[in-house]
Model the fold of this input.
Amino acid sequence: MLDKFLDYLLTEQRYSPHTIASYHRDLQDFTHFHFEKEAQCNIISAEKIHIRNFIFHCGEIGLSKRTINRKLSAFRSFYNFLLKINEIESSPVENLKSLKVFSEKQIPYSEEEMENLQKLWTIEEVPMLEILILETLYQTGMRKAELCNLLLKNVDFANSKLKIIGKGNKERIVPISKELNSSLKKFLNYRKPASSEIENFFINKKGKKMNEKFVYRVVNKYLSLVTLKKKKNPHSLRHSFATHLLENGAKIQEVKKLMGHASLVSTQVYTDANIEQLKKVFNKAHPRAKLKKDIL
Done:
């Protein structure tokens, strides 16, 4: 039944592979817990008290409220699926509320910190791939999963733009500077995929798809050299991308498009006319673009 549920998320709900993998782990964790406490490995017949006990257990072992809420989200999706196919008559998660989470304020890096980051590879030898990870994240506002999943065919060198596959497999187009475009071209000549079947643009030294943990380590490593801010992760670069655009006069509607926020529109595949407008926004507002005239 779990396999059917995961297939449903992929084919009908079009959830991202990352979300599906997370939900899979969450349901497996609950299955193991249910077996230990109730000597049952079938969570289809689990009751509300069993869900409550598991949530309490998660809190006891120190899981964050956000993680616990994601597990609740996985359970809601799973039991709603079972309701849909008439496998159960009621959901044990019904009326279970998510834990209250107070958002921690995101503090973006300053433009000076980002310039200092760029200066690093002028004074010391930094691998090409690591430079591209940092610059692509900052210049496009990509999520780390989107960076790892960027396909070679979706890098449009001729028009200086990327097609990014975001959450829910929604597509968006993001313009890039000529400088970044040139750097990506150099990497294209440098990369050596281990197999002709590898479609991803970013690959590691072994010629395999780059993973998210590596991206996090790279970002954390170099940001630690230029900032004292607590958070040094890919999402902070994404946040800085949006903040710097807004601070330099970009309209929030255009920034939302570049960020790929689902709340803006249901379909995020842009026409050439939209791309030209986004290029103008990028040229006018992004700190990297302002260094040159008409870089796109």
Q: What stands out?
A: The chain has a mean pLDDT of 84. The radius of gyration is 22 Å. The chain has two domains: 2-84, 111-291.
